[in-house]
Amino acid sequence: MTNPAMKVVEDSPFKTEIFQITDLLVNITKHVLKPKHELLTNTEKEQLLKKYNLEDKQLPRMSQKDAIARYYGLEKGQVVKVTYNNEIIETHVTYRCVW
């Protein structure tokens, strides 16, 4: 990307993520090995933390640079519900806080 184009993106009031074409060859949200990720609302996040008597820093972390976090434009402090489905453990749910 050229410097003038990058400047326009940086000055934009919108959150914009730049991907390399090779990052988009496979749709990571539909890949069979990738668990389902759902963003919790602020209310759902507060209910989760209250239910388990936690602070968000006690949840497992997800880097803001993680492919899923970049794809969905997740920001620091947001919580994601991760649902694993496979033949061995059936359904397993965990939560991750974006850092």
TrEMBL record:
Alphabetized InterPro entries for the sequence: Arch_Rpo5/euc_Rpb5 (IPR014381), RNA_pol_subH/Rpb5_C (IPR000783), RPB5-like_sf (IPR035913)
GO MF, one example: DNA-directed RNA polymerase activity
Protein location: Nucleus
Species in which this protein is naturally found: Solanum tuberosum
Pfam families, sorted: RNA_pol_Rpb5_C
Protein name: DNA-directed RNA polymerase II
Family the UniProt entry places it in: Belongs to the archaeal Rpo5/eukaryotic RPB5 RNA polymerase subunit family.
Major localisation: nucleus
Domain RNA polymerase subunit H/Rpb5 C-terminal: 26-98
A Gene Ontology cellular-component term: nuclear DNA-directed RNA polymerase complex
Superkingdom of the organism of origin: Eukaryota
